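Session log. Operator J.P. requested a structure for one protein chain; no other inputs attached. Running the standard single-chain path with token output.
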Amino acid sequence: MVSTQLVETPIMPYYHPSPCLRIPEKIKSQADKRTADTLSHLPTLSEPLQHIVNLLHHLGIAYADPHPAEKVDSYIIRPLYDAEYAILQILEAHRKSGVLSDTDALLAETFQIYFWFGLRTLPPQTRLGDLLVSRLMTSLLPFVHEGAPKEMEASAVTARWLACTYPIDRYFTLRSTADPKPANTIITWCLTLGTKITAALNGPEHLWLKGHWAIQMHAMGLSCNDAAYQSMLETFPDTDGFPWIALRGLVKQLQISVFV
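Structure written below.
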């Protein structure tokens, strides 16, 4: 947890945890297939991010569709710790040298959100929860605003401060990218996950994320197209096994909500 707060890998060398059972073949084959599908629908990702995508698909499927003969914990310990370490490595490298594109950085921060609020069941009402949400919102700024000032990178800001400092612009235009549809798919999923995890807070940060999510969903034609929304979710690691980040029914809230 301390390493996550500091965005750095532990000083102690990383060793694999105690031996665990092999991932059931059914889960492995599904995860590999889902990984290939993910990579075909997104902009070209760096090799570390591709590895993280594969690990999170294994973990998401394992919890959404557990093997009936064994407890999930008996075969997910190794990929769980591998994913945690890999996410820390890529975020630390980006913090030190800015190695990631804006979309890759956003995806990496959202994978950290997925890991902690899903796999680790971190309550949103915690200091670490607020820190992770603020990093997610900061990573979203290049796509919904002109971006955050560089001096903000070295300061500890809260998600609430970000929401108040960078209010929702209802008429923003999605930032142009070399490959806009795949990039916007990433932005949509990240906003969807952020909206879900902050719902329990119901504060400015949730309203900020939900407002931008609503605009994005309308712009992508997903707000009234449940099949397309579900297809978008299938591009990313499964959330069905994690009640706090389960996303399948969230679109119905958008369909019955009025964003004023």
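Operator note: The chain has one domain: 2-8+24-256.
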